[in-house]
Task: structure prediction
Amino acid sequence: MTHAAQPPVGLDELESLMHRAWLAPERESLDGWVMRSAGSVTQRANSVWPSSAPPDLDAALGAAAAWYASRRQPVTFQLTDRPENAALDGLLDRQGYSRQSETVIMTAVGPGPVQRAAGHGTVPTAAGPGTVPTAAGPGTVPTAAGPGTGAGRGAKIRLSGHPSEEWLDLWWRVDGRGGAAERDIARSILLGTPSVYASAVDGAGAVLGTGRLSVLDCWGGVYCMAVHPEFRRQGLATAVLGSLMEAGRRAGASRFWLMVAEANVGARGLYERAGFAEWGRYHYRQAPLRRASSAGGPRRRGSGMAPKPATMRAGLDRDPLPRRKR
Result:
């Protein structure tokens, strides 16, 4: 069971955890800002994280614009709602940056890590192979409806240290944007941080729901919550979330976080019932898209070249945002 009391954590700590749990393949620090690029797959992995204040705000914005222009991507900032970001937000307003993807950060405090018990199903975790005692045998966790019954055609929850192809297929169908190349980039982001992957499977082995948990510094971050459209509102998301949090506790997590779209009232209600409460918010600011000048001429500062339409994601960040989930 989790409790909605807010954990004693600073903005810097949780922002760092969220960054580490969803690493872009390409990262570079410039003037206190972290540039991130992943072929336009997910907003977080293709945005600037202003981890500290630069000595010259205008110069830093120009450097960021040049960095993303060289990758043919628009400049996008991921900004947590905090006083330190007010000056940057104001500058981006004046530059015509759009504001999008309003997101709620939710946290929960668990009862503390539990002792590992030998002789039960093992689940690889960020801290190494941990053990997860289950009632349904190795690698499975019964849903809230009981072993092999209830949610979605008798679905069970299976845990693994890697996403299966079936897990990836469902998650990408629900939250993905793009084709095989973009899916491969998304896989590389997932594998960038050791995590536990939960699959809600039916009796035939078909994956009906997904979730991912990254354990970092005694925190567990919930990502990639997705449920097959035909099997929603049957308890699958609740079962996936519960199994991930239990696995996290056994890996040493005593506190949890997740991100959810502000407009997704249903998902926020699900997380509140699971013990999560709002901790903070963030949003994205994207440069106005302008056509590149001819002959590779100079570009206006703050502008960014639009990526290919198929990979322009208003967000798989959604982070991928826990939907009912995700």
Observations:
- Residues 3-8, 112-152, 292-326 have pLDDT under 50 and may be disordered.
- The longest strand covers residues 98-109.
